[in-house]
Design a protein that fits this description.
The protein is an alpha/beta fold. It contains eleven helices and twelve strands. Bound molecules: glutamic acid. GO terms for molecular function: ATP binding; glutamate-tRNA ligase activity; zinc ion binding.
Length: 319
């Protein structure tokens, strides 16, 4: 950490209009990179093309700009590591997949969603249910016979390795890959490459040194560090951030339309009051006074940010 010039990233999935929680994540990622003199990359995570039409991505760029954020490369403007739309990066994922396939760790999995669901037990620490490994023991003949009937997903066998790292915000974290993560999917049965593979291939190829994202992804980080290593890339520094939750503790989602950027624009007219609120909740401002994103750069430090989830005030957005 520290020696490489900082390259941060936004990696939003444009499956709807961004909401306040997405803005929080984008703002903190931007402040973290900018306060370290770093660059920003915008990568559009639209692997699921049916759910992520191009119009949403355009709106997303517009909303980020409205909010006062900028980036040196990515999105429509492109750059040296493009394309920056995951839906256009299949060739990169194919290459990463064949690289991983050379090590005999990849196998076809025919389990249906329903079977997986039935077999999954709640996981002790983080809510992930590691795969049982059922299809790993299929013989080549069995797999071929099954593949004649339906297209398999492809999994990678997680090794018996402990990956430990220090999250920049939550501190030390470790997982035993085979026990805690289990064999995970690299390519879905419909041929679409999985998030885990795409995110690692892209963070690596785009030279990302700093990943800032919601703490719901912390549990996936050990397997991503391992995958990056397998692909020959150094891991970035990870910083997970608290989630913004509704007053009842529920995580905000794109269904909370009253908190999306369109609604915020209607309510506040300009970005400064929203930036100010988020800056206040992040411990950067004593009061929720209007501020431009760039005014928070000099005030940013990771120590000021809370670790506990940020609860929205009762009736926020509905008064
Ligand atoms: N595209 C993911 C999301 O919007 C984020 C992935 C990541 O930051 O690693 O939730």
């Amino acid at each position: 950490m520290g020696e490489r010039p900082v390259v941060g990233r936004f990696a939003p999935s444009p499956s709807g209009r961004m909401h306040l929680g997405n803005l929080l994540c984008a703002l903190v990622a931007w402040l973290s990179a900018r306060s370290a003199g770093g660059r920003m990359v915008l990568r559009i995570e639209d692997l699921d093309t049916a759910r992520c039409p191009r119009a949403y991505a355009r709106q997303l760029e517009e909303d980020l700009r409205w909010f006062g954020l900028d980036w040196e490369e990515g999105g429509e403007q492109g750059g040296p590591h493009g394309p920056y739309f995951q839906s256009q990066r299949t060739a990169f994922y194919e290459e990463a997949f064949s690289h991983l396939a050379q090590q005999d760790r990849i196998y076809p999995c025919f389990c249906t969603r329903a079977e997986l669901h039935a077999a999954s037990a709640p996981h002790a620490s983080d809510g992930l249910a590691p795969y049982s490994g059922r299809c790993r023991s299929l013989t080549r003949e069995q797999a071929e016979a099954m593949a004649a009937k339906r297209r398999p997903a492809w999994r990678i066998q997680a090794p018996a390795r402990r990956i430990a790292f220090t999250d920049g915000h939550y501190g030390p974290y470790a997982a035993q890959l085979d026990r805690d993560c289990g064999d995970f999917i690299l390519r879905r049965s419909d041929g679409v490459y999985a998030y885990q593979l795409a995110v690692c291939a892209d963070d690596g190829a785009m030279g990302v040194t700093q990943v800032v994202r919601g703490r719901d992804l912390l549990a996936y980080t050990p397997q991503q560090i391992w995958l990056l290593e397998e692909l020959g890339y150094p891991p970035p520094q990870y910083y997970h951030i608290p989630l913004l939750t509704a007053p009842d503790g529920r995580r905000l989602s794109k269904r909370d339309g009253d908190l999306d950027v369109g609604a915020l624009q209607k309510r506040y007219g300009r970005p400064e009051p929203v930036v100010g609120l988020l800056g206040h909740w992040c411990g950067l401002l004593d009061r929720p006074e209007p501020a431009a994103a760039r005014e928070l750069v000099g005030l940013f430090s990771w120590e000021k940010l809370p670790q506990k989830d940020i609860l929205l005030p009762e009736n926020f957005g509905r008064e």
